[in-house]
C-alpha cells in the first residue's frame, strides 16, 4: 500500500473520535509549551544574572595578588597589588579590552547614630567605563568625582533603610591595612538603584584615592578589573597579561560556584523534561491502545484481505506521528508566545535576590529565546511520542485474522 494512502487512512481514523484526538494533541502541545517556557525562563534568569555579575562585580578578567582572598576583603599590603596602575594601563592597550581599572575592596559599617549597615566598599576609578552601569543607575544626587575627598555613593535601598538622603552625613568604620579600626565622616553624594537587591544592599563606593588614604593602602589595589568587548576573548586577554605580577582569573574562574549551580539546575531540568515527556508518552499510548481495542475487527478484516502486520503497525505509528506533529506545532507557537511575553514582562520575584550573596540577581525574572534547546525539545517530544506508539501498534499488528474477526 502506498505510503501516502497510509497517511490518509491514519488521518481519517483519528477523526473517528475527534474529542479524544484533540485532547491528546492538546496534551502534547501543553507539555512542550511548559518545557519551552521553563527552559526559556531559567536560561534567561541565569544568563542575565551571569552578565550582571560580570558587568557589576567581577568583570571578564581580574588580576590579583597571589595571596588575595575575595571573601576576606583583605587590606594587608602583602595581599594587594603594588603595580595596579601599570597593569591597568597595559590591559587597556589591548584591542579586546573595553575598560580596565584598579579597584580596592574593603568591608565597612555605615552608621547614622540610630541605624547601621554592613557594606562592601569599592574604591573605584570614577572616570572608568567599568562603572557606567552605576553611573546610569543614579536616581538622586550625582556620581562621585575623582578628587572627592569625603563623598560616598550608596544605594537607594541602603539610604532608605538608614534614613539618609543626598547631602546627609554618616560615619563609616573600616579596619585598615594595619588591622586598626578607622572612622571617617562622609557625605552622601548620590544614590543609585540597579534593580539587583542583593547587590544594592551590600555595595557602596568611594573614589579610589580616598579609599586608599582612608584604609592606609596608598598606591595599592585589591585587583585590576577588566571588561571586554567580547566575552569569548577572556582567555586571549589572560594569556596576553601573563607575567604582569599577579594571578590572572577569567570570568569562568571568578564565577565558578555560579557556573556549577547552573550545571546542577540544568540536570534538574533534564529530569523535568523526562517526566513531562513520559506523561505525554503515556497519554499517546493510552489513546492508541483504546483505538486498537475499538478496531480489532477492522484489523482482522484488513489482515484477511492481505494487509501485512508491518503495514498495520506503520498505520498506527503514523496516527501517533500526526497527533505528535499537530501537538508540537501548536506547542511551539504557544511556547514562543509564552517566552516572548516573559522576555518583556517577566515574573517579579521581589527581594528574593537578596539571598543570592555574591550574585547580581535582579528583582524580575525574564525569559530568553534559546532556539537550539527549543528545537531539541520538539525533536525529543516527537521521538518519545513515536516510541510510545510502538507497543499499541505492535499489539494491533500481531492480531490473528480469525481471532480478530471473532472479537466483539
Polypeptide structure, described:
The chain has 408 residues and is α+β, with helices and mostly antiparallel strands. The chain has two domains: 3-53 and 258-406, no CATH class; 66-245, no CATH class. Helix content is 52%, strand content 18%. The strands form two sheets. Strands 1, 2, 3, 4, 5, 6, 7, 8, 9 and 10 form a ten-stranded mixed beta sheet that branches. A two-stranded antiparallel sheet has the order 11-12. β2 and β3 form a beta hairpin. The protein is elongated and about 90 Å long. The model has no long low-confidence stretch (mean pLDDT 83).
Summarize the structure.
The chain is of the alpha+beta class. The chain has helices at 3-14, 18-58, 84-92, 132-136, 156-162, 197-200, 208-214, 234-240, 251-254, 256-294, 296-304, 309-344, 371-397, 401-406, and strands spanning 61-64, 97-111, 116-124, 138-141, 151-155, 169-175, 181-192, 203-207, 223-228, 247-250, 347-348, 364-365.
- Topology as H/E string? HHEHEEHEEHEEHEHEHEHHHHEEHH
As residue ranges, the low-confidence spans are none
- Mean of the pLDDT scores? 83
Domain count: 2
Gap from first CA to last CA:
27 Å
**Total number of helices:** 14
Q: Helicity, in percent?
A: 40-55%
What class do helices, strands and sheet pairing give?
alpha+beta
Sheet-strand content, in percent, reads 15-25%
SSE inventory with pairings:
Blueprint: H1 3-14, H2 18-58, E1 61-64, H3 84-92, E2 97-111, E3 116-124, H4 132-136, E4 138-141, E5 151-155, H5 156-162, E6 169-175, E7 181-192, H6 197-200, E8 203-207, H7 208-214, E9 223-228, H8 234-240, E10 247-250, H9 251-254, H10 256-294, H11 296-304, H12 309-344, E11 347-348, E12 364-365, H13 371-397, H14 401-406
Parallel strand pairs: 3-8, 5-7
Antiparallel strand pairs: 1-9, 1-10, 2-3, 2-6, 2-9, 4-7, 6-7, 11-12
Amino acid at each position: 500500500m502506498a505510503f501516502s494512502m497510509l497517511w490518509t487512512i491514519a488521518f481519517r481514523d483519528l477523526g473517528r473520535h475527534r474529542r479524544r484526538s484533540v485532547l491528546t494533541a492538546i496534551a502534547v502541545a501543553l507539555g512542550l509549551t511548559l518545557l519551552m517556557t521553563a527552559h526559556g525562563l531559567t536560561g534567561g534568569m541565569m544568563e542575565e544574572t551571569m552578565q550582571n555579575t560580570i558587568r557589576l562585580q567581577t568583570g571578564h578578567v581580574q588580576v590579583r595578588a597571589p595571596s588575595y582572598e575575595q571573601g576576606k576583603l583583605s587590606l594587608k599590603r602583602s595581599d594587594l597589588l603594588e603595580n595596579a596602575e601599570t597593569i591597568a594601563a597595559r590591559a587597556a592597550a589591548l584591542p579586546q579590552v573595553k575598560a580596565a581599572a584598579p579597584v580596592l575592596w574593603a568591608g565597612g559599617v555605615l552608621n547614622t547614630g540610630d541605624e547601621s549597615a554592613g557594606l562592601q566598599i569599592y574604591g573605584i576609578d570614577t572616570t572608568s567605563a567599568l562603572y557606567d552601569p552605576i553611573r546610569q543607575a543614579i536616581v538622586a544626587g550625582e556620581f562621585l568625582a575623582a578628587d572627592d575627598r569625603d563623598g560616598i555613593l550608596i544605594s537607594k535601598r541602603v539610604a532608605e533603610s538608614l534614613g539618609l538622603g543626598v547631602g546627609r552625613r554618616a560615619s563609616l568604620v573600616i579596619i585598615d591595612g594595619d588591622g586598626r579600626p578607622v572612622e571617617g565622616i562622609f557625605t552622601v553624594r548620590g544614590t543609585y538603584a540597579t534593580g539587583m537587591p542583593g547587590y544594592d544592599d551590600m555595595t557602596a563606593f568611594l573614589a579610589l584615592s580616598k579609599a586608599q588614604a582612608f584604609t592606609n593602602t596608598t598606591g595599592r589595589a585589591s585587583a585590576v578589573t577588566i571588561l571586554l568587548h567580547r566575552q569569548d576573548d577572556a582567555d586571549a586577554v589572560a594569556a596576553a597579561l601573563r607575567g604582569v605580577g599577579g594571578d590572572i582569573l577569567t570570568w569562568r574562574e571568578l564565577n565558578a560556584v555560579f557556573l556549577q549551580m547552573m550545571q546542577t539546575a540544568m540536570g534538574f531540568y533534564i529530569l523535568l523534561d523526562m517526566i513531562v515527556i513520559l506523561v505525554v508518552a503515556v497519554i499517546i499510548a493510552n489513546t492508541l491502545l483504546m483505538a486498537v481495542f475499538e478496531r480489532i475487527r477492522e484489523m482482522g478484516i484488513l489482515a484477511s484481505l492481505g494487509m501485512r502486520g508491518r503495514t498495520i503497525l506503520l498505520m498506527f505509528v503514523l496516527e501517533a506521528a500526526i497527533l505528535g506533529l499537530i501537538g508540537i506545532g501548536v506547542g511551539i507557537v504557544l511556547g514562543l508566545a509564552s517566552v516572548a511575553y516573559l522576555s518583556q514582562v517577566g515574573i517579579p520575584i521581589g527581594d528574593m535576590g537578596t539571598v543570592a550573596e555574591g550574585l547580581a540577581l535582579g528583582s524580575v525574572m525574564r525569559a530568553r529565546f534559546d532556539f537550539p534547546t527549543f528545537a531539541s525539545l520538539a525533536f525529543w517530544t516527537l521521538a518519545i511520542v513515536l516510541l510510545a506508539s510502538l507497543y499499541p501498534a505492535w499489539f494491533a499488528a500481531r492480531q490473528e485474522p480469525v481471532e480478530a474477526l471473532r472479537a466483539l
